[in-house]
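=== RUN LOG ===
request id: a7f3
mode: sequence -> structure
chains: 1
length: 118
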Amino acid sequence: MDMRIAVVSLWAQDVPGAAHFYRDVLGLPWLAHFGGDRPHFDLGSTLLTIVHGRPALPPDPEPHFPVVAFSTPDLEAAMKKLQSHGVSLPWGMESNASSRWVMFHDPEGNLLELVEFK
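=== RESULT ===
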């Protein structure tokens, strides 16, 4: 079978606030034609949707591992944009032989990652 991820859903109690974060802070393209109370964002061949509800946060903060990771071609520029919007980067930039990344929380507490592959 040839399968790909079609939709990733994130839970948020404040859906409009979360939608603002993903559209205006992360710069994801909003798909206005989907309408309704579940904002959808275009991630190429995958959609991200924000669903009303309480995020399922891990009971133990370690090890930190993201709910979803977004690829970016310029991690430093992305970090500057996040910081200009007051987003905390609690672990700073991390790296290994094949990539570097930064993790942060969205306004609802979902742990996200931006990753730049080398």
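=== NOTES ===
The CA atoms of residues 11 and 55 lie 5 Å apart.
Residues 63-118 form a domain with the 2,3-Dihydroxybiphenyl 1,2-Dioxygenase; domain 1 fold (CATH 3.10.180.10).
=== END ===
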